[in-house]
Amino acid sequence: MLRFTLTRLLSLCLSLAVASVVIFAAIEVLPGDPASIMLGVNAQPDTLAALRAELGLDQPMAARYLDWIGGLLRGDFGISYTYRTPVVEMIGDRLAVSLPLALFSLALTIVIAFPVGIWAAARRGSVADVAIMGLTQLGVAIPNFWFAMLMVLVFAINLQWFSAGGFAGWDAGLFPALKSLTLPAIALALPQASILARVMRSALLDTLSEDFIRTARAKGLSRREALWRHALRNALIPVLTIIGMQFSFLLAGGIIIENVFYLPGLGRLIFQAISARDLIVVESVVMLLVFAVIVVNFLVELAYAAVDPRLRAR
């Protein structure tokens, strides 16, 4: 297990190193000069040069990369070009929206997917199974931003049960804050629930065909009892792996949904920073999201190896 952990840890570090280079290079080659955007097209050359020097934009790209990555390792994400405030403070404020949204979406995903997947597996080949698989296929195919706009039209504009956008803030209380996140969480959760339900069904059906399930049935257990007592626990291993990956997606993939609902989260921060050419904010936030995805996948692999010793030899 120690060798497996060290190998995966080395892979994590290499992935982060490669990701940092790719992120920095990709963002730096974007057209537009941050200093020119901040000062406007009529800025004087000496003023423009002074601002570029102040922001460190006159340094070679390699020096700027080393300075940026060194700051990240120290916990210093730099100063925003546009707002002139520490990036770490901006990320902390926006993470207070994006992280609860991801957790809320993941909870809805699990609550929807587990019963649906188990129900479909227990009734394999029935009308209910075919209907559920058709609905989950539709859930996978429909873009979440289109579904988000549809929910705004129905529940915010027509029924007026929810606000069309914005975030009430945690200071307003738990219920108003969660109510603001409900529609975005549903929009994020339904496609993921469709995927997870299909995985749950497939994992259960594979487990139900194993020899130990047939042995349990031969000893007198009904199909229902064999499913709940034996199959479900063993089928959870691949399902838990998917859940870990989905959490990474929900945390890093909510950019469009946050913009649809005007939520002050990390996704909207990235969108605003790109518009303003605030490179240090874009680089730091994207790197943070990549770090979260890689670390979550690393923890999922460790948990999977702890449950299934056969993976430790790989």
UniProtKB/TrEMBL annotation:
Subcellular location: Cell membrane
Membrane topology classification: Multi-pass membrane protein
Keywords associated with the record: Cell membrane, Membrane, Transmembrane, Transmembrane helix, Transport
Source species: Pseudooceanicola marinus
Coiled coil feature spans: none
Protein name: Glutathione transport system permease protein GsiC
Membrane-spanning parts: 101-122, 134-161, 181-200, 235-257, 285-307
GO cellular component: plasma membrane
Keyword Transmembrane helix: yes
Homology family: Belongs to the binding-protein-dependent transport system permease family.
Primary localization class, coarse: membrane
Every ABC transmembrane type-1 domain range: 95-300
InterPro entries: BPD_transp_1_N, MetI-like, MetI-like_sf
GO molecular function: dipeptide transmembrane transporter activity
